[in-house]
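=== Structure Prediction Worksheet ===
Name of assembly: unnamed complex
Input type: mixed (protein and possibly other molecules)
Chain count: two
Listed entries:
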Amino acid sequence: MSPLLINFVYVVSAALFIFGLKMLSSPATARRGNLLSALGMLIAIVVTLLAAGLDYKWIILGMVIGGAIGAFAAMRVEMTSMPEMVALFNGFGGISSLLLAWAEYHQNPRMSVFIAIVAFLSAFIGGVTFTGSMVAFGKLSGKISQKSVLFKGQHLVNAAILATAVGAAALFCMNPSSGMGYALFVLIVLVALGFGVTSTIPIGGADMPVVISLLNSYSGIAACAAGFVISNNILIVAGALVGASGMILTNIMCKAMNRSLANVLFSGFGTATAGQGASDGPQGEIRPATAEDVYYILEAADSVVFVPGYGLAVAQAQHVVRELGDLLEANDTEVSYAIHPVAGRMPGHMNVLLAEANVPYDQLVEMDDINPRMDSVDVCVVIGANDVVNPAALDDESSPIYGMPIIETHRAKTVIVLKRSMNPGFAGIQNALFFAENARMYFGDAKASIQALVAEFKSD
Amino acid sequence: MEPVYLTFVFVLAIFLGFELISKVPSTLHTPLMSGANAISGITLIGAIASLQTGNHAFSAILGTLAVTFATINVVGGYMVTNRMLEMFKKKEKKTEGGAQ
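=== Predicted Assembly ===
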């Protein structure tokens, strides 16, 4: 097939990607949108395979291995583990852009300055994305500590690494075809891999929604840069779409935490405040409740709002929550689920878990929709969420989370908080909600606690 | 002229991306990310095209690895996104144990 025709078909693929993303604007059309996008990818792959002079044995080898791994992972992954999966895939996108830039450079080292610059960007961003994503994956899956790891002079080390990369890149771009140029390229790759680790390791577990979104964006930008290296429009368009998507999500996540991106990346939030928070915070009497108490409260309620957090995912409690929701509805109670943008470990994490448990998406409400009518809600049930319902964010200027938008559960007539113990949440800040007049603490594992409630309803 | 033309395409695609993605509701942000993962596997196209007969052995190894990783993204990304989106359902006429 002629290169001209191939490029025309790429235009069709790009159009399909765009339509696919457009259809993601509603849950009703989203699935068809994804299939349309997949069709665009299939067409692009097939037409690329028809080009002359390809070395098929390598291509087939790579595609068979990659396809098998991808399909296996996609079928086996638990919905609670989606953040890990996405982190891993971000990393694979990054490494393939790095490898592609390297392969192109190795094959054809006589590059113009422009191509040399984009080859550097592709390799560097791809490398950072790869190791950064591996660290994020390790943190999310609990293979390495979720705590932020800080060491003395961290910012200096990172600045030095970046300066090395930029310096090496400048020298590399001046003369990429020399032996020295090749050595510099390898140095850039190594520096990028190191920088991915040192820049991600200080970021704590609850900031992962921001990090994953950012790495998502990087993987797109790396693909884009690789597109410049090989002068291929489809890589540039698709990479730019992914890059834009990641940037928007990063921005939404930062806003939902009322923090700047720089603050998330450099401050190591959580460690600095953990010491003082627990003792300085509000104190008072807590009102524990038994399953029976909670049952009577729920049974009498006209409207119940569930507020899920990361604890729901940890306890795998999404199915029992839906079962309880169904029982409440059968009891003529209005049930909805209020979801904070940063609840969980990635954007939309809670929505997917509840969808998995067959909660219809029209029962899921966003923070900005539920807050105005919170005063008329009879009961809020907070499941494994803490900082996103902490009223200190509204009224305590000294609190580290002051200014963060929260789901204002304290304004409901009754709040039931499901929690393992009185330990403060990730940010190490004690929560005044637990001591409020209208709050009842229902201690225990989220799943077992809700199962007990379901049993109460059924025995009735 | 080529770099200018490519940059032109890049800038327009970024703007288009911002317009499209800002309309995606927060309910679908996780499928959006995994779908974006799949699209970023577009590197596969470049990796396939780079594997020409008569390449240096080392280029071929790098290219094959790039094909492998990108295919994981494409296949895994689209499949898992589809699996997730299948679960997003509208409220229907109560099929199981629900109302009344």
